[in-house]
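Here is one record:
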Amino acid sequence: MSRGTRHLQHSFLLVKGIGQTQRRVEAKKCTLGIINNNRVVSIDAYGWKDFMSKVKRIPIETVTDIKTASTLPPPVLDKVSLLIGQDKALNFLLNSNLTELPSGHKLIDIGIGKFVCGQGQLKELKKTVKTFATVLQHLENRHDQDLTEKIDLQNAIESLPFTDDPKDNDSEIARALLQNNIVIDPETGRMKVPLLFKEGVEDLPSNLGLSTATLFSNSRSLNDYLFPGPSTVPDMASVLLRFRIGKIAISSDIEKAFLQISLEEKHRDYVRILWLKDFTKPPTRDNIMIYRYARVPFGVNCSPYLLGGSIAYHLSQVGTLIAEEIQRNIYVDNCLVFAQNVEEAISKYREIRQIFSDVKMNIREFISNSAEFNEFLEQQTGEKLPEDTKILGICWHITDDTLKIRLPDPDFLSTNTKRKCLKVLASVPDVFGLLLPIILMAKLFFQKLWKSNISWDDNIDTTDWAFATQGWKNFEYCFPRQMIQSLETNKELHIFCDASAEASAAVAYVKEYTEGQPSTTLIFAKNRIKPLNTEKNGKSSLTIPRMELIGLLIAVRMGYFLKKSLDMTFLSINIWTDSKICLQWLKNPPAKDIFVKNRIFETLEKGELYKYRHIRGIENPADVASRGCTPDQLLKHSLWWHGPPLLQHPASDYPSVTDLTSERREKPIFTLAATADTSQSIVDVSKFNSFQKLVSTMFYVFTYITLLKMKIGTVLQHPFTLFQHAQKTATNLLFIEEWLLKQLQTKYPPDLKDNKKFNIRKDENGFYRCYGRLANSDLNDQAKFPIWLPRKAALTKLIIDQIHRTHLHSGTRTTLTKLREKYWIGQGRRTIENQINKCITCKRELAKPFHQPAPPPLPKNRITQSLPFQHVGSDYLGPLTITVGGREREKRWVALFTCLATRILHLEIVENLTTARFIHALRRFIARRGQPESIISDNATTFRLAAMVENQARMLHHQDPELLDYCAHKGISWQNIPELSPWYGGAYERLVGLTKVSLQRAVGRHIPQQYEFITYLCEAEAIVNSRPLTYIQENEPIQTILRPIDF
């Protein structure tokens, strides 16, 4: 027992757990005094709330005489009050007494208490309990997290889908708020309820008008401050199934249901509306009236629960059998009940009217299938009842008591989109699934649309849609509302299941014995098409046996649902399948196939008392629900509407029941113990643009905490306090980099795919490294086993930028090479390339002043067949230095003429750039190559003057009679390219470059004599004219090479 507790101080501890999880807690250090064998043992301990989860222990206090008991009770989960470490535990264990019990366990008395350990005999549990302890780690990047978000996180953990009906904490709070505050208004007699406000919210903004929805993206609405409350609406299928049971069905409706419940006065200011006094005047303050809702308004998110919860509260206060029946069969404001005779119907009518009248609710529009009861209703209301009405979307013909399902018009002759197809599918009012085979064809077509990634408003293939919905137009199916003759007859429930490659299905029949004669009625059907996410590499993981197992599970769930929904007793519930594999799995589930094992466990848990039988495939009515058919085919499908012929025989003629008792496995109960571990990051890495700045910032953070440590003089258990001194040294900066990398890898650990691909393991320092095939190389350990980095993390991008900048904005290959000396990134080349493309410096240096426009079509003279030099381009190259008469040096230029079609070259040496020299060069060219029809050149002065001489020869009185006669009788079309557009002369500019290269390589640094230069010029002309114009194939031994000289 505890002798005394003395608190010493408050401390912050870093508690580490399984999987290297960490949690920083505020604890109180205290000293405990424990009496052990008349001596006091002093223990220093840390205490905080909920310091560990519950653990198993054997409750020996429930055993009368533990030393004689042959078995001990099974272990239970219990809260731990004190956890004693190994260093202190020896003080108790060394002086303890050990006793061996008949059960095989060891009883240890340590002075302060007794406990049982070891192995022995325990009383058997009915069910095996498997407990999983799971830590859900939430890494928070922001500096703080408000209370609402923490509550949402806790609610998310509490509502993990491991149970069929998880409890929602918000719903429980909303239920308590309504139950504790609902009252009957003494003045009006109505129920008065409050708005279900959340606790701890700030004041609402002052709004003049009612706005339950958010008007702006950064604002909050009234609905954000209210609990929506749990759903009180029962399942529609359950209500409609019970509606089909009795001989007399009665339907009614609550008039203006929401407005029959008053709202508390203090909450009416939250639901105000604005109204104009005079609509002909503008909405000024003097022209506006303010109204408040005194009743529950429709549109507030908690209004549906306020209505349903208020009605449920009132019915629970009434406490009669009819009140319980109303509670099960009221759907929002529609009430459906049944009776076996007219007297019972009239009695229920009066009771229902009185129950709702007590809270000032007017329930009206009573109607039934009984003509006598309808006459009574007409006498009460004085109104003529209609012959047809709608019951939750299904047409009900009163006279012959039949229900009618009408398929929507698919309108396949007009333009259709994916949105219209979904609208048609969603408007099918088939709650019972009677037309399931017809609808399956359209469902499969819509899934095909989903696979094709067609947008919602793109046109689709009308032919395929018409095939999937053939026979839908004007199709109606009528069936009797009453599905059984009497509640007193013996009944059996038979559910058939089947599957195809596209869907799994189950269909249920009620077999009723009336005067010894059996009759079957189809009452319910469900199917499920194969999910898209099961396909990988074009192959689905759902094989036919697995699809059959899904169908079996649908059948078991259907039996569980029908048994709970229908107010009747069945002699037996039979599950029929044509899959022997599924029946074998029921007897012996595969241990390693988790998919099959989990579904078998649920099947046996919900359908433990069901009878599982085998049926031949051709006799299975669920087959058509898994494959689909047209409306005409379904109407003639007797197997679907009445079930297989064997149901007309007595139960003794059925195939034998699959024996599951000998091989029955214990069904596990999965318990999830979840703990939220919030690790806050003190900086947001994504807000930094430099790795160096990030490290510098973290240095100042670490330095500040280190200085605090030195000032306080207490060693805090926190990684920040590992600084020995507050100085910027290489050791401290390296520690910060390593700490950042560990935080990164903790937040984004490698997944199974990365582990397998890169062989990632943790080293002795806690880093995830890639262990490749370089272990035996002479490289350092950083290069042999690089640190793994997640490629999408912000810190990874900062590291890439750091290496890129350090190496003078190098390219992708260099940056990748340097990065892999220490780090490894999956898809590293693509990641680095994407990051370098965002570098502002590289963009600025590599930017071009403008983009080149798209090239226009080639000129006609370049691509039409013509003689060599019929169309010519001309240009100068030079100047080139030559030696004249010994040592004197002069400049020479070369006039270049090229054929625009054949690309052949002609060179002429000229002494200067005068027009006269060029005209003589042109005359020599014409003398050797022939007269061209046209010449193009740039806008040099020489060419422009030459062109002017040629074009105006007849008008000029030139002193040279030969040139005048030549220009007069030998007309040449001369064209100058546009100014400042050298690309127009690409045809000759390219040959200028080739000629320069040939001359430079031939002459070198030598300054030739003029006669040598003329020789070099002729040789360069011959070489350029011998170049190939066509592509040379590598693997073709014999080729015809086309050259300019060949023309």
